[in-house]
Request: fold
Amino acid sequence: MLIAAADIGDLAHAIQLALAPVFLLTGIAGILNVMTGRLSRIIDRGRNLVEQPLRHLSSLDEVNSELATLEKRRHLASAAITASTFAGLMACTVIPVLFLEMLLGFELKFLISLLFVISTMSLVVGLGYFLREVHLATKTVRFTARKGVD
Reply:
């Protein structure tokens, strides 16, 4: 009954408006894929350091130093994933609210705008954490030549 009351033009317009959050969600999904990949590599490197004997590192202090850096990177990557996931959740919430506005005839533009702004700002926070993690990773990477390695 509610759908019958809605004009087909209003429905088409609501679908058009819903495309922006859908595109945002697609971008967030790609970013989350990259972030989770980095988090996996951080965890794998930490496990490798803890479980393997000291073959490639010169001292226990060096291992502990790298583990501390990996822990900072893990925390930053996790925070980036959390903020970006929250951005996705807020973008997902925009879509049904758009349709509720159209179907029920309520004025929800303020709520829609607020949810979209929260989504975008959460994504900015997530990308900031991600940038910090990448910066920390590039700052702490060491390339050294080893004797006798083919």
